[in-house]
Amino acid sequence: MSPCEFDRCRTHGCDGHCSLPSMRVETIGDATLYLGDCLEAMYHGSMPLVHHVITDPPYEAEAHSKGRRLLGKQEDGERTVEYGSLDFGAISPELRVECSRMAASLSQGWFLAFCQAEAVALWRDAHEAAGAKYKRAMVWLKPDGAPQFTGDRPGMGYESIVASWCGQGRSRWNGGGRHGVFSHAQRDNNHPKQHMTQKPLHLMRELVTLFTNENETVLDPFMGSGTTGVAALQLGRRFIGIERDPKYFEVARARIKQAVSQGQLFTPAPTQAVQLGLDEVTQ
Asked: Would you put residue 100 in left (φ > 0), alpha (ψ -120 to 50) or beta?
């Protein structure tokens, strides 16, 4: 046991004499991957400040019930769909608050978190309690989203993304005056998902392009299958990912290793800002 060197650990209630957790850490090119609990990694690991946090946390408990469309299968040339419950636990109020606090303390720019529409207010409150400045609830539209098979209510064809600013001064991004609405099919060229809530790569590329700049570092505390990391590396960013499930960590590790070996694939032209008139500006 040695004196803790991390001020943020002391703010968590550490008496200054804690042991660092034992966790696997791998560096692959411009990516650093942690196998372990995200709070332990952010509290006790020698986690540097990052430019942005972009993450897809676990859903609320109500979204973990059976009846969800999960992974697709390809059998004899036919696409089938599996239904069932998710294979990871729902987020707890404590995890939401603590993750927000740590992520906001590490981020010098944006903090983006996917969530259900019903949880936007919860994430907004957690971000603001952590000192971040809530800016917008954005929407990912799913053109291929499943209908409501019971027929007794509208289907859910979108997910929300809470966007908060953790940096100094006014927030800034590369999107000019465009809307925070992103329309992308759930599948990447019809490839099967490797994680039950895996986000499409083309969606994550768009978010990384709009909210980050080349050579900046993106942190994902809930790395899953590593899609955020792949997008970041392909676009010339650095990446730090944390995943507690060894199965998904290996999936992310393999995907990120491939992305690093391929090098930077995309160099998008910068988005031109749109100058709005005073009568067009909204909060």
From this structure: alpha
